[in-house]
Design a protein that fits this description.
The protein is an alpha/beta fold. It contains 12 helices and 7 strands. It has 3 domains: 80 residues, Obg-related GTPase Ych/YyaF, coiled-coil domain (DNA polymerase, domain 1); 76 residues, Rossmann fold; 84 residues, Ubiquitin-like (UB roll) (Roll).
Length: 250
């Protein structure tokens, strides 16, 4: 009945590594002989990499800790190894500890996570439960009264997006606003293709304004009058918070 987050983390990590080890060993049993007998170059590369991963796992080292090149990452991807995934830690503390930021257990988790260069989100499950029962206005007032800028859920979403290299752009119609998730670095035609492949295939231009500009000027018309509406082409790299209208023809 003791509280020991590091012990709990290590127990979970061992379970994940054992699951990955089973996947790796099963694959080695299937392709090991082929690599030896057929001398297939691609299979040999795969076997060498899997043995490298196996050694790490048997040393209680997660696959994400290995220094892999792009080719090796591509080879491992189909196996969906659990310990190859990026990680975020969450620490649940009391309301008082959350506001004071003085929980000793959370500090230990942060120290542990720092070794992996991982982020830690400190939350109070009681507060999150109460927030889930409130509407938007009530939630904002509740957080303000507590002196908290973002809820734990909002922090987790932002951290997850950042960790996975994701961002969001918006489309606005007469009756709805839609948010679309994309990988950072994607260009306008690729992002248009997320809505429909025809948008990418027949892409011409994208009318774009930033969320911050819309927030500042209050309306699309005012954004245009301020000269902040942009017309971007095929090489434009989309930015988080872009509000877009895609022009296309197929």
């Amino acid at each position: 009945n003791s509280v020991d987050p590091i012990r709990d983390i290590e127990v979970i990590n061992v379970e994940l590594m054992l699951a990955d080890l089973e996947v790796v060993e099963n694959r080695l049993n299937r392709v090991g002989k082929k690599a030896t007998m057929a001398k297939d170059k691609e299979t040999i590369k795969e076997v060498e990499l899997l043995n490298k991963v196996k050694i790490a796992l048997t040393k209680n080292e997660p696959a994400r800790g290995l220094d892999l090149n792009e080719e090796e990452i591509k080879i491992l991807k189909p196996f969906n190894l659990l310990t190859s995934k990026p990680i975020i830690y969450m620490a649940n503390v009391s309301e008082n500890d959350l506001l004071a930021d003085e929980n000793e257990h959370a500090k230990k988790v942060k120290e542990y996570a720092a070794k992996e260069k991982a982020e830690v989100i400190v939350v109070c499950a009681k507060i999150e439960s109460e927030l889930s029962e409130l509407n938007d206005d009530e939630r904002e007032l509740f957080l303000t009264d507590l002196g908290i800028k973002d809820s734990g859920l909002d922090k987790l979403i932002k951290a997850t997006y950042s960790l996975l290299g994701l961002a969001t752009y918006f489309t606005v119609g007469s009756d709805e606003v839609r948010a679309w998730t994309f990988k950072k670095g994607m260009k306008a035609p690729e992002c248009a293709g997320i809505i429909h492949t025809d948008f990418e295939r027949g892409f011409i231009k994208a009318e774009i304004m930033s969320f911050e500009d819309l927030k500042k000027h209050s309306s699309e018309k005012a954004v245009k009058e301020a000269g902040r509406m942009r017309l971007e082409g095929k090489d434009y790299v989309m930015q988080d918070g872009d509000i877009c209208h895609f022009r296309f023809n197929v």
